[in-house]
Design brief:
Layout: H1 7-124, H2 130-171, E1 175-181, H3 186-195, E2 206-210, E3 213-218, E4 226-231, E5 234-236, H4 242-249, H5 251-257, E6 262-268, H6 274-278, H7 289-294, H8 298-311, E7 318-328, E8 331-334, E9 345-346, E10 349-350, E11 356-357, E12 364-366, H9 369-380, E13 385-386, E14 394-395, E15 398-407, H10 412-428, H11 437-447, H12 450-459, E16 482-490, H13 497-500, H14 505-528, H15 540-544, H16 546-550, E17 554-561, H17 568-587
Helix pairs in contact: 1-2, 8-9, 14-17
The structure holds adenosine-5'-triphosphate.
Adenosine-5'-triphosphate is lined by residues 182-183, 185, 268, 270-276, 281-282, 285, 391, 393-395, 492-493, 560.
Length: 599
């Protein structure tokens, strides 16, 4: 065997090795390419599947939305049908009631005539037999009995009618939102030209397109027009008169005498028509008395309706007191206080039963609607006003007119409501023994003024607080006068500081107004979302109106909006607040559990 290896042999061996390596690499590349092709195929497969799944999911979502929309439409249609059914029943009942009333009157007349005849006959038939007279007397007695029966049926029908009325109001919810779009007025044009923002700013963009829908054309330069729709319980257009607006508010005044607290609140941007809606037009806007009457707003018309309803009740059974407050720069002022400007400021407190109260607030007794209006008109001069670029007679404060009605003989519905709210108060403060005099006193103080309470405690003295049921007689729920209140609120206008053109102290006023209105919006938001804490105390306005907004009072928010492009941002903000308020109603159908059954 040679000791050295031939170089050619070494090369040949290396070439052989390299060729072998190359072959195995090529095989590996082939293998990887095959794997790659398989993976591509799998990927394509997955993509097809994914697209298919996505399509399925979209289809399912569309189907779900369609189903949901259909269910919503069906519910809405059902509710409308139900409401119209209730309206029809109400109509039928009122017809039946009319027939009963005339029948009872006829029967009464007939029995009177018969009685007269009997008397005549008995005097002329002294000689006739006693049997005939007895027979006639029996017939008269039978007629009198049937008359009594008819009267009783009449009473029952009247009560049922009242119940139905409240059911209709309740079906519409405890918080109702109405919207009023005012007409384009001369100052809309003047302001647009002076502000230099071009003629487009006076263009009409907010429309009442039906009885319950408002449409806003949102115009943005270079963008197609976008229409936004808002639905409310009732929408009034520029052509709707003050009477038409009040017609929709009127049922709430009936509820007031049935034991409900009622609050009617006008909300909107400055110059949008809140004072016009609540009070009526400023005296300089209308010339004749007839015209002035036709222009009367919700407050004078509500007062007139209230006194009309009271006049149908037994004389002296109801008394009315008025109080007027103003929330200015987050302070509450009693505008009826006789102790001069300096001492009119008042506090708002929360009582042990969770209601808000203004201690030492002045209440003036009133006997007619004109008396109410005289008082309000005389003190309205004290209300803070300030001309702004938007509105020359702009109100800088929130005005709250309260009519408190005391009834000595409340009807059955009102009594049932009183029992309910007493029960609720007890549930609200479970830690207290409800029969404890301390607790009763606190609760009663919250509900009734001190003079009334003194009278009731004087009639039922209890020497010392005790923790066991008190055997001494106490005023029953039906004995103390029954009180309900009607709060009529004309809010100050929300506004954009830049647009109002105010400075200095007026700027502070605008900031206080805007803060209190955003506190109101926060409260509505918290209620709509059913948050555990409702921030009533963030502003005096919400603290003062706590019972009306979150309690079981019937609240009507009257949104006032300007129709022009210039105020479209503010109008959209107001419409948004109205939508929020409606969500409170949707989320909390509070009356369902409280439905009254008075038979
Ligand atoms: N529906 C309407 N029809 C006719 N005129 C109206 C209507 N609404 C408002 N106006 C007029 O527009 C002007 C401004 O209205 P109003 O004083 O009620 O505004 P406002 O919302 O109370 O403003 P502010 O919050 O600044 O006090 C008034 O001259 C009023 O007469």
């Amino acid at each position: 065997m040679p000791l050295f290896i031939n170089r050619d042999q070494i090369f040949a061996h290396q070439v052989h090795l390299l060729e072998h390596k190359l072959r195995s690499k090529e095989e590996r590349i082939l293998e990887l390419e095959t794997e790659n092709a398989i993976l591509h195929l799998r990927l394509a497969d997955c993509l097809v599947k994914l697209r298919h799944d996505h399509e399925e999911e979209t289809k399912a979502m569309n189907h779900h939305h369609q189903h949901q929309r259909q269910a919503q439409n069906e519910t809405r249609a059902g509710l409308t049908k139900l409401l119209s059914g209730v309206q029809e029943v109400k109509q039928d009942l009122s017809e039946v009631f009319g027939v009963y009333v005339s029948f009872a009157a006829e029967l009464e007349e007939q029995s009177k005539q018969l009685l007269e005849k009997v008397e005549q006959a008995s005097s002329s038939m002294k000689g006739h037999s006693g049997d005939e007279v007895q027979d006639l007397q029996a017939r008269v007695a039978a007629l009198e009995r049937s008359l009594e029966e008819e009267k009783e049926r009449c009473r029952t029908e009247r009560q049922r009618r009242q119940e139905l009325h409240n059911t209709v109001v309740e079906l519409r919810g405890n918080i109702r939102v109405h919207c009023r779009v005012r007409p384009v007025l001369s100052f809309d044009h003047v302001q647009s030209s002076t502000s230099g923002s071009g003629p487009a700013s006076s263009e009409e963009v907010v429309y009442a397109i039906s009885d319950d829908t408002v449409m806003v054309n949102c115009l943005k330069p270079g963008m197609p027009v976008q229409n936004k729709m808002f639905e409310f319980e009732r929408v009034h257009g520029p052509e709707d008169s003050q009477d038409t607006v009040f017609e929709e508010v009127k049922p709430l005044i009936t509820s007031l005498l049935d034991g409900y607290n009622v609050c009617i609140m006008a909300y909107g941007q400055t110059g949008s028509g809140k004072t016009h809606t609540m009070m009526g037009s400023h005296s300089s806007d209308v010339s004749s008395t007839v015209e002035q009457e036709a222009q009367q707003g919700v407050i004078p018309q509500a007062a007139a309706e209230l006194f009309r309803l009271i006049s149908e009740k037994p004389a002296g059974s109801h008394t009315v007191e008025v109080s007027v407050m103003e929330v200015y720069n987050n302070d509450v002022y009693d505008l009826l206080a006789k102790d001069g400007q300096g001492n009119q400021r008042r506090d708002v407190i929360t009582t042990s039963s969770g209601t808000s109260q203004v201690p030492s607030l002045t209440h003036e007794p009133v006997g007619s609607a004109s008396e109410v209006m005289q008082i309000i008109s005389s003190i309205l001069k004290l209300r803070a006003h300030c001309p702004t670029l938007v509105h020359t007679e702009s109100s800088r404060s929130h005005l709250i007119v309260t009519l408190t009605i005391s009834s000595k003989s409340p009807n059955a519905l009102a009594l049932a409501r009183r029992l309910q709210s007493a029960k609720k108060d007890m549930q609200r403060s479970p830690q207290k023994e409800w029969w404890s005099p301390r607790c009763r006193r606190a609760d009663l103080t919250a509900r009734y003024p001190s003079d009334e309470l003194l009278a009731s405690s004087a009639s039922s003295p209890c020497p010392s607080p005790c923790l066991s049921p008190c055997p001494s007689p106490r005023p029953s729920i039906s004995q103390a006068p029954f009180r309900t209140k009607l709060q009529l609120v004309d809010l100050a206008g929300s506004e954009c500081v830049g647009m109002s053109g105010v400075t200095g102290a007026a700027l502070w006023e605008v900031s206080c107004i805007n803060r209190s209105l955003s506190a109101l919006s926060d409260v509505l938001g918290a209620l709509a979302e059913q948050r555990p804490h409702i921030p009533y105390r963030n502003s005096k306005l919400t603290h003062l109106l706590q019972d009306a907004i979150g309690g079981d009072a019937k609240l009507l928010v009257m949104l006032c909006v300007s129709p022009t492009q210039r105020y479209v941002t503010e109008s959209l903000q107001s419409l948004g607040l109205g939508t929020r308020a409606r969500q409170v109603q949707k989320e909390l159908p509070r009356r369902k559990s409280n439905t009254l059954k008075v038979k």
